[in-house]
Design brief:
Elements (H helix, E strand, L loop, with lengths): L1 H33 L6 H14 L8 H11 L18 H5 L8 H26 L6 H13 L1 H9 L3 H16 L3 H11 L3 H4 L2 H11 L3 H21 L3 H15 L4 H9 L7 H20 L7 H12 L15 H11 L6 H22 L14 H12 L1 H7 L14
Helix pairs in contact: 1-5, 2-3, 5-6, 5-8, 6-18, 8-9, 9-12, 11-16, 15-16, 16-19, 17-18
Length: 415
């Protein structure tokens, strides 16, 4: 009995300390960043759209709400050739961030930024557990810094990119499936769909895997979760799905050139449609992996194929955003585990982190547009391509040591 009380007291104390740290960080970020230096451009459109709905009673996809976003973003209506910064997310995004519309944007931005940072560290420790990785203190410090300050991750924090939330939800999904906490995994996967561009391939694959592996609770809980999110959204705004689709398709009219078009037209001098040859090859590789798992039932390859799917999503898709590359923390931790099997080789894991960390920032600094501060198209390719190449050459390691998408009692993951 005393042991139970001691355990509860420990968690209460830790929760209290964590809450105090969180509040202090929010105040610090607000006072020294979000208030004096307004930013978080990606988050602003979602926040103002949600605020317009909950406070002003407007359709977040409607003209009046869009004008509210323009006035807050530009101080005037957006010009036709400018980014229209529309809400353009599923309606249930407004439900999930509803509490943040009760405070002004500087506070909301501070809260979402600190929340993302906390979730990044939480996801890191979940990946340690997923891959049975026990880093030493130096590795843990380096990885903690990496999880907060790596270029693609910190860019997501600065922009308030909700795709980062999707990354964390995918980590929870993988962890939950491995631990046989299928309802948790399903709810997390449903929440991850707030960023459809990042999940349009991985979500179907995981559901098909769930059917193949007879994880009925996972599939059923996901369907129920989505019905709740989508159903409540339709109750709140009956036209939301069509309204969102209209905003998403309108994006192509004012969006900057996508990296693949720049690569093929401006760099290689080929027609833009030539990119579909590359896309077809990558999709073929991915679908071959799907076939191995879903038809041949080689379930030990499921995690390997899941990471391939995430990499292909971030290359062969219409919209690519570097903050989405946070999902590559998943294979990075696996490779850190591999490099740390022998104590003498742990320095190589630190060297890998340093190369990726420094290399990404150097590439950004040497290619950024000095006038607009926009990142170069080239930032879209190194990480996903390196992940795909590494996945191919380490496939046997993934099949033998990365077989985490199966019941924990049957896992072949070795320490």
């Amino acid at each position: 009995m005393k042991t139970g009380r001691t355990s509860w007291m420990k968690w209460i104390v830790l929760g209290g300390i964590g809450t105090i740290i969180f509040v202090l960080m929010v105040i610090t970020v607000h006072d020294y960043l979000t208030e004096p230096f307004p930013g978080h451009a990606d988050f602003y459109s979602r926040w103002e759209g949600a605020r317009s709905f909950w406070i002003d009673g407007l359709n977040p996809y409607g003209a009046e709400a869009s004008l509210n976003i323009h006035m807050g973003f530009y101080g005037r209506p957006a010009l036709p050739e400018e980014d229209q910064v529309l809400f353009a997310y599923p309606m249930y995004t407004a439900i999930l961030i509803a509490p943040l519309v009760l405070v002004d944007f500087a506070w909301a931005a501070a809260i979402i930024m600190v929340t993302m940072m906390a979730l990044s560290i939480m996801a890191l420790f979940m990946l340690f557990d997923l891959f049975k990785f026990r880093p030493n203190l130096i590795q843990m410090v380096f990885l903690g810094v990496f999880a907060l300050l790596h270029y693609t991750i910190s860019r997501g924090f600065i922009l308030g990119q909700l795709g980062f939330i999707s990354y964390v939800m995918y980590v929870i999904t993988f962890w939950g499936l491995h631990k046989e906490r299928d309802t948790l995994a399903a709810v997390a996967l449903a929440i991850a769909t707030i960023k459809p561009q990042l999940g349009f391939l991985i979500v179907p694959f995981l559901l098909l895997w769930g059917l193949r592996a007879q994880r009925w609770q996972f599939v059923g809980a996901f369907i129920v979760s989505m019905l709740v999110l989508v159903g409540v959204s339709f109750v709140l705004v009956p036209t939301w799905l069509f309204d969102m689709w209209g905003q998403v398709t309108a994006y192509t009219e004012y969006a900057p050139p996508i990296p693949s078009d720049v690569l093929f037209e401006d760099i290689l001098g080929l027609p833009a449609n030539a990119k579909y040859i590359m896309f077809a090859g990558l999709w073929g590789l991915m679908l071959f992996g799907w076939y191995q798992v879903l038809v041949d039932k080689q379930l030990d390859r499921a995690m390997w194929v899941a990471v391939i799917t995430l990499a292909v999503t971030n290359i062969a898709s219409p919209v690519i955003a570097t903050p989405h590359f946070a999902v590559f923390m998943i294979p990075l931790i696996f490779y850190m585990k591999l490099l740390s099997r022998r104590p003498a080789h742990r320095r190589w894991s630190l060297a890998l982190l340093a190369i990726i960390f420094i290399g990404s920032w150097v590439l950004f600094a040497t290619t950024v547009d000095r006038e607009t501060t926009l990142e170069s198209w080239i930032m879209a390719y190194p990480e996903p391509i390196l992940v795909l190449v590494s996945l191919w050459f380490t496939r046997h390691e993934w099949w033998e040591r990365g077989a985490v998408l199966q019941p924990a009692s049957e896992s072949k993951l070795t320490t």
